[in-house]
Amino acid sequence: MLTLNFTKFPLLETERLILREHSLTDAEALYDMRTNETVMKYIDRERPKDLLEIKTFISTFNQGFENGDNLAWVIALKENPNQMIGSIGYWRTDYANHRAEIGYMLHPDYWRKGIISEALKRTIDFGFNDMNLHTIKANINVENDASRQILIKQGFVKEAHFKQDYYFRGKFLDSEIYGLLNPKH
């Protein structure tokens, strides 16, 4: 059975990026992103009411890592590792089937610079090689073509299109599920 029991939070690096653990000092940057309608356009989640809610959210992230439930990184540029510009991570880990869902978000100032692709490639490698995942899935809003293209570029394949399977703000929305199999399995 799959387990996520790392003795300490795994710090990941790429050519330009540091992927690190969330800190309470990231609360303002995360609040700004999660209340930015441009960022959240295709992320169908309620917006946080205040910084306290975000700090609780960060504590929950970190507790989720400690419990082995999820693994979420802050995306930061190497030249400024304390400034959060985005996040990426694994949620909804299905231990019995060695499967986890990946999700990500990025501040619009950093869009179209290949940052999510770079972070995604590194976290996929980590998911397959260090976590021993068999499958990584992504669930996207069907209108989010940018996310779809990033996933396809990384080798993800569309597995499903669910009709009106998600209820958010008074409407039923469609979802697309993309999957990537571990090439070593």
UniProtKB/TrEMBL annotation:
Domain called N-acetyltransferase: residue spans: 17-174
Record's protein name: GNAT family N-acetyltransferase
Highest taxon above the source species: Bacteria
PANTHER family noted in UniProt: GNAT FAMILY, PUTATIVE (AFU_ORTHOLOGUE AFUA_3G00765)-RELATED-RELATED, N-ACETYLTRANSFERASE DOMAIN-CONTAINING PROTEIN
Listed EC numbers: 2.3.-.-
Any single Pfam family the record assigns to this protein: Acetyltransf_3
Keyword match Transferase: yes
Keyword set includes Acyltransferase: yes
Alphabetized UniProt keyword annotations: Acyltransferase, Transferase
Enzyme class: transferase
Record-level Gene Ontology MF annotations: acyltransferase activity
